[in-house]
Amino acid sequence: MSAKGELPGWVDVGLIPLLNLFVALLISGVVVLIIGENPLEAMWIMLKGAVGSIKGWGYLLYYATNFIFTGLAVAVAFHAGLFNIGGEGQAYIAGLGATIAGLSLEFLPWPIVIPIAVLASALFGAFWGFVPGYLQARRGSHIVITTIMFNFIASSLMVYLINYWFRPVGNMAVESREISGAYIMSFREMARVFFDYRMPSTPLNPTFFFALFIAWAVWYLLWRTKLGYEIRAVGANTDAAVYAGIRPQRIIMITMAISGGIAGLLAVNEVLGAQHRLVLEYVQGAGFVGIAVALMGRSHPVGIVLAALLFGLLYQGGTELSFAKPEINRDMIVVIQGLVILFMGALEQTFRPWLSALFFKVED
């Protein structure tokens, strides 16, 4: 039973997001209709392109992996009352750690190199998240401002490093040389090496299962450990947390390091799993999409995984739609994604007053 005036969990976590998603898709359909295309046909093309083939599923899960990491990173910070907008930069800098470890240790066998590169990704991302946390905890700098600025710093720094440190001499492409041991991260390569089977070519790799494990680890951290309780206590009421003996400054720094480390794991999917090298702008906005994923998933790991799958479907289905219907170009797909973000984020409470009135009227 829910308290008077409080909606049941299934309404808050299930029904409201579904209503918001339905309205976003409905308005997207109107936009598609305005440009002269059939919205039902467009929706079918998107669904078929995303889940109608093994290749479609491969790309959907590949995109979802990135969004799981960035969504979890934002959610961990949310629980401490922090708004980490720096996932983009933290994931980008993490690629530096993966590349340094992968290239400098390539004389070792891949079962040793890959775990070290994964750890390096998390550590570099954690450092890039810890610094803004330290600045807020010790210097009073607002976390939103510092994380945004760190995104720009990371972008400029990585352009310089890739161009002048990692790009092989004579190579016109702005990328590092291949990380030789990372080839095994490809599902297609694993199927060929271990099972002599040719899979469709997609960037999907074992990092997807690693992302699911990290989602479970975040749930365990937040709801089954002392540190998780302290994080949630600081986010719920800082004064009460201080009264309980919790040091908010310490929790802010630890939380931002954890958040940055999780965001940094995106580099495992991209640098090690898909590209096998460090390339320019490989994050591609996933850090910002993670904010919408965390909001849509109510900052709970299960909800974040489901929201990440939805955005993976939109990305892959949108790509197929732009090929099948040239009139619906990539910009239109961004509009559809933006509408979903709008209703799942900024307007997520639109239906709450109506549902509250309806629910408690029926209950009475």
Question: Would you give an account of this structure?
Answer:
The protein is mostly helical. 75% of the residues lie in helices and 0% in strands. It has helices spanning 9-34, 39-51, 54-79, 87-104, 110-139, 143-166, 187-195, 207-224, 226-236, 238-243, 248-264, 266-275, 286-296, 301-324, 330-346, 352-363. Helix 2 crosses helix 3 (54-79), helix 4 (87-104) packs parallel to helix 6 and helix 13 crosses helix 14 (301-324). It is globular and about 70 Å long. The protein starts with 8 loop residues before the first helix and ends with a helix. The model has no long low-confidence stretch (mean pLDDT 89).
Global morphology? globular
Q: What structural category do the secondary elements indicate?
A: mainly alpha
Number of helices: 16
Structure summary, number of beta strands: 0
Through-space gap between termini? 13 Å
The average pLDDT value, as a whole number, equals 89
CATH topology annotation = ABC transporter involved in vitamin B12 uptake, BtuC
The first-level CATH class is given as Mainly Alpha
| CATH architecture heading | Orthogonal Bundle
Runs with pLDDT <50, length 5+?
none
Query: Which H/E pattern describes the elements?
Result: HHHHHHHHHHHHHHHH
Rg (CA only) = 22 Å
Number of domains: 1
Largest sheet report: none
Helix percentage: over 70%
Percent of residues in β-strands: under 5%
